[in-house]
Design goal:
The protein is α+β, with helices and mostly antiparallel strands. The protein contains 25 helices and 24 strands. It has two domains: 557 residues, Glutamine Phosphoribosylpyrophosphate, subunit 1, domain 1 (4-Layer Sandwich); 129 residues, no CATH class. It has an eleven-stranded mixed beta sheet with strand order 1-24-2-3-6-7-8-9-15-16-18. Strands 4, 5, 19, 20, 21, 22 and 23 form a seven-stranded antiparallel beta sheet that branches. It is globular, with a radius of gyration of 28 Å. The N and C termini lie far apart (90 Å).
Length: 794
């Protein structure tokens, strides 16, 4: 009896406990939901501001595009700041903190090492100096933008969830923060250039010039616009010392992030309309939200000399944190960019008598503050590697590195006019592609480029560096306008002529396979429309890996019974980075494994010097093929009797690793490329708190594309936008982005556009149906109305 009663009581208590837990959980979920709802910005409302001259509207269409209409460009900057702040303030906060080295203030010691690496460049101080010397018009634009950002921040009733989760408070925006956002792009786009030169310096010191020349020899994948060729390497294969070979550690050489882009254009000779046509897809790391923000600016053209002002309409993508359209079209001219990878950094080996000053950079942490010390010389900040001190001269440290001159493209109406502006742009050096409504197409290096004429792959001495013109911007840059072929292409490999290459150097060019494939596709047709360009953006044919597929089949055919299934899958690989191809996965990972294991002796030595081959891994393709063909014994790992056995072992290692990661049943059929290369676009918070993934991340999608082809896509990397336009025919233009406008997970614009992107259904450049309208009214109008009303009262 007692036992039964106990059981009943336990049962009831369990039910009550469960009910209580469910009730509390439901209450907690409801509370969190309510807080999130309250933190959503108001997109359909009217607000007042004392910082604009006339009323401004911010409309949102079905994709969340911010359509801004203002009476002047300064008010448009204010409205863009307001819209960016509403949808993306936390992203903007991270960008400014990233370049300034201030992430530890939010994330604590976990971000300290990253902050220290950023403080080495002292970019906040540099941003302040640059801002103070900007033209008054640029200051006015940044000031208006800043006021718009802070007004939206003040209008928010509840902090966004990112600040609630990190127990932090948003700090007001400052004009210099917009310059820091541009600096964040410098660090992304030129960070590997800096690391590359140091890696090559360590390689030279450890192995000598013969090895240096062997590893970074020119590729046969060359696709310069003038078809000029840098002579191929004629030297022999340097021998590896026995002890270095024996002490090598088997390890992965980290795949470098191929930060870059594709773009190409054709003149009006190759379109039915007679307008030139431009394609641009910028390749960056993916996160939630995606870095770009759709926007359209509408305001009167004050540069027009006519008595009646013409309305300008600029449509494209902006970078939250800055008041400019980065890539877009104004109806007469369209522009797009790819990273140029010319050499914009030099390390200088400083002598013992070089004067060095110590500067202190306080870093704030939630629990206090630490002082980080930067050594500074007249050549730049100093670091010590393998016992030797080097100073960094980098274009990002110059006074002309950043400005607001990108705004000038908005009013340019021809390729020639835009090309003249190229060297005034304070952005990382880019391949700027241009197309206009008159049928002209052009390319020019745009952005900050130093006038120094002695770029070097390795550290230089102070003796030969005295007369370097680092503080002067290069006034004349290479360009090609309306070439005879009527076609222009760039994809991060060398675009310059071989002669110009000597002057501007190599800052880490892509191998060239992607450029060559784009060039060859453009040569296959004599007439193009937007859909033709879009299909080229999606081109995932595996031309680059075809020789590797043939080589792997040859290797495995020595043991046809053992590798019968493998051979069948590889032979029927589809010749593409297609989702259902197992053969592509096998070929792709065999290549990686063989390269990693072949160059392990060098990687092991460089790791001892706090360096590595990762930043120059793309160069290893050409020397790898020389080693395969000549099979030198001094490079053969001692556990193998010949290169055939070595290649089979590398293949088996790659298969073992793949199966451990991607197949519980250890079946080759599970290694479809779409599964192995799944597209995973995550929010920064879900990487630390996986429980948040279902609410914060984009859906995981089967992969499509790879690195050495126009359709670039890795697990969290790829085309951050796909843009195609004929200026003047924007109604047919394309702008696809793999994510939504808003950073708020409850917003309908959080994921809007993602499905179309992954299904390869392009979305339009121009705004669609308007769903929200926000009006900003100048306070002075209200004050005047109120005053008039009061005067009429008896």
């Amino acid at each position: 009896m007692s036992f039964s009663l106990t059981k009943v009581l336990q049962s009831k208590l369990t039910k009550y406990t469960l009910a209580t837990i469910l009730l509390l959980s439901s209450g907690l979920i409801l509370a969190v939901y309510c807080i999130l709802r309250l933190s959503m910005p108001s997109l359909s409302t009217t607000v007042n501001s004392s910082d604009i001259a006339k009323p401004v509207t911010i409309e949102r269409d079905t994709l969340g595009t911010a359509i801004i209409t203002a009476s002047n460009r300064i008010d448009a900057s204010y409205a863009m700041g307001y819209a960016h702040s509403q949808d993306r303030f936390f992203q903007m906060d991270l960008l400014r903190r990233n370049s300034a080295g201030e992430l530890s203030e939010i994330f604590g010691k976990a971000a300290l090492d990253l902050d220290k690496s950023r403080r080495f460049h002292q970019l906040r101080k540099r941003a302040q100096t640059i801002f103070e010397n900007l033209p008054q018009q640029d200051k006015a634009s940044l000031s208006a933008y800043t006021k718009g950002v802070n007004q939206a921040l003040a209008d928010q009733t509840v902090l966004s969830f990112e600040y609630l989760l990190t127990n932090s408070t948003p700090r007001e925006w400052h004009e210099t923060d917009s310059l820091l956002v541009i600096y964040s792009m410098y660090l992304d786009l030129q960070g590997n250039t800096i690391k590359r030169d140091m890696a090559l310096t360590q390689l030279q010191q450890a192995f000598g010039n013969e090895m240096l020349d062997f590893l970074i020899q020119p590729s046969h994948h060359q696709a310069a616009l003038d078809d000029s060729q840098i002579p191929l390497y004629q030297g022999g294969i340097p021998e590896l010392e026995e002890q270095i070979l024996i002490s090598a550690l088997k390890q992965d050489i980290k795949e470098p992030v191929e930060v870059g882009s594709n773009n190409w254009a054709v003149t009006g000779e190759l379109t039915q309309s007679g307008r030139a046509m431009l394609s641009d897809d910028m390749h960056l790391s993916f996160a939630v939200p995606i870095i770009w923000y759709r926007a359209q600016l509408n305001f009167p053209d004050s540069s027009n000399s006519n008595s009646t002002e013409e309305m300008l309409q600029i449509t494209g993508v902006s970078l939250p944190g800055a008041p400019a359209i980065v890539v877009g079209s104004n109806g007469k001219l369209a522009w797009g960019f790819t990273n140029s990878y010319i050499d914009t950094a030099d390390w200088i080996e400083i002598s013992s008598d070089t004067e060095i000053d110590l500067e202190y950079e306080p870093i704030n942490l939630p629990e206090g503050q630490i002082n980080y010390t930067v050594q500074v010389s007249k050549y730049g900040p100093v670091k010590t590697v393998a016992g030797i001190s080097y100073a960094l001269s980098w274009v990002g440290h110059t006074d002309y590195a950043v400005n607001m001159a990108l705004l000038s493209l908005e009013t340019a109406d021809s390729v020639d006019q835009a090309a003249e502006l190229a060297t005034q742009l304070g952005i990382p050096a880019q391949n700027m592609l241009l197309a206009d409504d008159q049928g002209n197409a052009g390319w020019k290096i745009a952005g900050a480029v130093p006038s120094r004429t002695n770029p070097s792959d390795t550290a230089q001495s102070t003796k030969g560096y005295q007369d370097s013109n680092w503080q002067q911007q290069q006034p004349i840059m290479p360009e090609v306008i309306n070439p005879e072929s009527q076609r222009i292409w760039t994809a991060n490999s060398r675009v310059l002529s071989a002669e110009e290459q000597l002057r501007f150097g190599d800052g880490g060019y892509a191998l060239g396979a992607r450029s060559a494939q784009i060039r060859d596709r453009l040569m296959e047709k004599n007439s193009f429309n937007e859909d033709n360009f879009y299909q080229l953006q999606l081109d995932n044919e595996a031309l680059f890996l075809a020789p590797w597929q043939q080589y792997l089949l040859e290797v495995l055919s020595e043991q046809p019974v053992v590798f019968a299934e493998d051979i069948k899958l590889i032979a029927n690989w589809g010749n593409c980075a297609c989702a259902d191809s197992v053969g592509y996965t096998l070929v792709r990972h065999f290549r990686t494994a063989l390269i990693d294991q072949t160059f392990a002796p060098i990687e092991t030595e460089l790791k001892e010097r706090d360096s590595g081959l990762s930043v120059i891994k793309r160069y290893l393709e050409t020397p790898m093929w020389q080693l395969i063909k000549q099979q030198p014994s001094s490079w053969l790992p001692r556990e193998h009797t010949n290169w055939q056995a070595f290649a089979i072992s590398a293949y088996q290692d790659s298969i073992k690793s793949l199966l451990e990661k991607h197949s519980k049943k250890r079946k080759l059929a599970d290694l479809r490329w779409g599964k192995v290369n799944q597209l995973q676009i995550q929010h920064p918070f879900s990487k630390q708190l996986p429980q948040l993934s279902r609410w914060l991340d984009m859906p995981t999608i089967e992969g499509f594309g790879d690195s050495f082809m126009p359709a670039v896509q890795r697990k969290s990397f790829g085309a951050s936008q796909r843009f195609i336009v004929q200026p003047g025919a924007e109604q047919d233009a394309i702008m696809s982005i793999p994510g939504g406008q808003s950073g708020h997970p409850l917003s309908p614009y959080y994921r809007n556009g993602f499905d179309q992107y992954v299904k390869q259904q392009h979305t339009p450049l121009l705004p669609t149906e308007i769903e929200h309208t926000l009006i900003i009214k100048p306070l002075i109008d209200n004050q005047v109305k109120l005053s008039n009303t009061e005067m009429k009262v008896p």
